[in-house]
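Annotated sample (chain length 93).
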Amino acid sequence: MDMCITLSSQRYRVKLDSPISLAIPLAFGGAQPSFFGAPRASAAPLAIGGFVGDTTQGGSCNVVELRLVPLATAPTPNRWAISCVKRCRSPPV
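Output written by the structure step:
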């Protein structure tokens, strides 16, 4: 399915059945984009009290704790930017 839009007197055709992902894959153990001095995203077994979420370390199951700053890993002004009410509203939602 196609859709036509006009912006500043220029007509564009959008192919809705052929989307293109703008996502940047996030590799917890590899190279990552980062902006504003934000820490790297990380993944580690969850450890609380005597529980460890890693069967190779004696845990009963695998449970991974993910740490990331989503909007600090997003592209900035010279590329695509993502804004949402949670990011822009004060006080935060």
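Annotation: The chain has a mean pLDDT of 78.
Annotation: Strands lie at 2-7, 10-15, 42-45, 47-48, 51-52, 64-67.
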